[in-house]
Amino acid sequence: MADHEIVLLTFLVLFAVQFLLGRTLALINANYIARQRGTVPDALAGSVSPEEHTRSVDYALARTRFGHVSALYGAGLTLVFVLPWTCFLLSLSLVWYWGLSPISTGVAEICLFTLISMALGLPLEIYETFWLEARFGFNKTTARTFWIDKIKGLLVSAVIGIPFLYAILALIMFGGPLWWMWATLFVIAFQFLMMLLFPLIIAPLFNKFTPLPDGELKTSLEELARKCDFAARGIFVVDGSRRSGHSNAYFTGIGKSRRIVLYDTLIQQLSVPQLTAVLAHEIGHYKKKHILKSLILSSLLTLAGFYVLSLVLDWVPLYQAFAITNREDKALGLLVCMLIAGAFTFWVGPLFHKLSRHYEYQADRYAFEQVAPASVPVVAPASVPVVAPASVPVVAPASVPAGRDAMSSALLNLYKENLSTADPHPAYSAWHYSHPTLLERLRFLKRLARGG
C-alpha cells in the first residue's frame, strides 16, 4: 500500500472511531438521563421540583437528538470537503483567479471554503435557534437580529480574518525553515491584540453594554473586587436577553481594558449574594492564574501545531492522498490539515477538560472563601414572577432553600433557569464537560462548608 493510501485510510479509520465514540457516549448519556425523568436526585430534593427536573431532562434529550443530526451532517460535510475529488474541484474552481499572486489565491481558496461552510451550516443553525431553543423558551432572537448578526459577523471576519490569512500564508511561503516559529509568535501577538480590542470595539458591535447602575448590587460587587484586589475599568450589563434566555457572567480584556460583564438575564435571576458569589468565582480564575496558565498552554499547543504543519505541508503523500494537484498550493494543504486534524487529536479533549474541571473547583473554593461569611439565604415565593423593563437591570428575588450558601444557591438557580443537566452519565461528562456537574459542585461546596 502506497504512503498516500495509508494516509487516507488512517484518516478514515480515526474519523469513524471519533464519530462512533461520540455518538455512543451520547446515546449512553441519553438513556441514563431519560431514566431520571420525574425522579429528583436526593441532593436536589426540596430545592428542585419534579416538574423542573423533568423539564431539564427533556431539554437535554432534545439537544441530544439535535446533536445526532448535527454530528451526522457535519461528518458528511467534512468527508465531502476532504474527499480527493472535492479538493480537485476546489482547485479548478479558482482558475478564474488567474493573475493573482499565490498568497492571494490561497486566501481566496480559504475564504471560498469558509463561505460555503457557513451557507451549508445555516439550516441547522436556524433550526436550533428558532425551533429547538424557542421550544423551551430560550430564544429571544428575531429573524432581523439573526440576519444582522450574520452580516456583521461576516464583515468583522473579513476585516480581521483576511489580513490574518495573508500574514500566515506569507510566513508559510516565505518565512524560511523556521516559519512555524514566526507564525507562533505572530498568532500569540494577534491573540493579545484581540483581547484588547474585543471588549472595546468588537463586542459592542453585537450587544449593548451599559454601566451597572448604583445600588446594592454595584456596591457589593465593587466591595468584592476591592477585597480581592481585582482591578477592572467597570462593571457592565450586556443585553443578552435580546437573543437568549440563557445567562452568564464573565470578565474580558486585559490590562486597562479589563471589564466585568453581567448578562441582564443573570441579574434578574439571582440575588445580590448569589451574584457576588458568581463574580467571586470568575475572579478566582484570575487570582489562581488560570487565564495565564491557559494562555501559556495555548501558546505551546500553537507552537506544536505549527511545527507539525511545517512537516506535513511539504510531505508529498498528503497532497497525493487528497488529490491536490498543485503541491505548491500551501493554502489548500493547510485547509485539508485543518479539516482532518480533529480525527487525529480528538482524544486530547478529555485531558484538557479534566484540567479545566480542576480549575473550576479551585475557583469555587476561592469564591466560597470570599463570600461564605456573608452568605445570607434569600427566601421568596417561587410562584411570584418578577417583571421589569428589559432596559433596567433589576435584582430579582431568588427562591433559595434555607441553609444554602450563596454559591450553592446560585448554582441551583442557574441549573433551573438554564435547564442544565444535573447528573449526566460519568463517562459522558468525563469526555465532554469542561465544568464539574451540578451535583459534583454541590458536594464539593458541602465539604467546604464542613471544613473539608
What can you see in these coordinates?
- The chain has 452 residues and is mainly alpha-helical.
- Helices cover 66% and strands 4% of the residues.
- It contains 16 helices and four strands.
- β3 and β4 form a beta hairpin.
Radius of gyration: 24 Å
Please give the alpha-carbon distance between the first and last residues. Answer: 59 Å
Identify the quaternary structure here: single chain
Q: How many β-strand runs?
A: 4
Can you tell me the overall shape?
A: globular
Tell me about the largest β-sheet. Answer: 4 strands, mixed
Low-confidence segments, given as residue ranges, are 374-404
Q: Kindly report the spatial arrangement of strands forming the biggest sheet.
A: 1-2-4-3
Helix count equals 16
> Which structural class do the helices and strands define?
mainly alpha
Q: From N to C, what is the helix and strand string?
A: HHHHHHEHEEEHHHHHHHHH
Report helical residue fraction. 55-70%
The overall average pLDDT, rounded, is: 85
The share of residues in extended strands comes to under 5%
